[in-house]
Amino acid sequence: MEPYSTLVGKLAPRLAAKLLGHGAGTEGVQLFATADLPALVPVGAGGSNPYGRPDLPEGPPVARTLSRIRSPDGYFVSGMWDCTAGTLEITFDFDELVHILDGEVTVRTENADHVLVPGSVAFFRSGLVTTWRIPRYVRKMYVHRYPHHNIASRAVRKLIRLVH
Q1: 96 Cα distance to chain centroid
Q2: DSSP codes, 24-38
Q3: Which of 51, 109, 145, 157 could form an S-S bond across to 88 if both were Cys, CB 3.0 to 4.6 Å?
Q4: Percent of residues, the chain, with pLDDT higher than 70
């Protein structure tokens, strides 16, 4: 019988491919142009936004996302995200690197406010709690790095999104 770590190492990429849609066509170079992307997909059920705060005067913003690049093991994902004006509360369960392409956002952390405008690049560590104030439409390119132990919770999130 194979050791547990060897078995997990062999199964993780296969499970990611089956459960998360990763694996097919992800070998080698993957390219996408930000200007040639298809329509982004609303986050949440029926276009609802799980991050939004409907109690604020500007109402809940609508966020959309489109993942374009995935590593074969599913732990590295890149794509586009955009959002209408409003306020979001986001707690990161992965590391994220962003490059703001359009619009503006003020990201509040425990220690400071950070204004991101076109050309800004920022890193958000896993576990960070933030509030995003978006005065007008914002669009970013993102890169996510998921913790290796988090594949089960990512699969559950994917299943929940599919059900909704």
Answers
A1: 8
A2: TT-SS-----GGG--
A3: 51
A4: 55
Residue type, 24: A
Return d(Cα 55, Cα 57) in angstroms, integer. Answer: 7
CATH topology of domain 4-25+43-163: Jelly Rolls (2.60.120)
pLDDT digits (tens, 9 = 90+) for 22-32: 444 445 676 76
Q: Which helix (H) or strand (E) holds 153?
A: helix 151-163
**Residues β-bridged to residue 131:** 89, 108
Q: How far apart are CA 52 and CA 72, in angstroms?
A: 32
Token digits of residue 20: 């998360």
- Residue 110 per-residue DSSP state: S
Tell me the C-alpha distance between 121 and 68, whole Å. Answer: 19
In the prediction, which pLDDT does 144 show?
93
Confidence class for position 35, pLDDT limits 50, 70, 90: low
CB of 79 closer than 8 Å to CB of 68: yes
DSSP 3-state of 146: coil
pLDDT at residue 85 greater than cutoff 50? yes
Helix axes 4-20, 151-163, angle to 10 degrees: 20
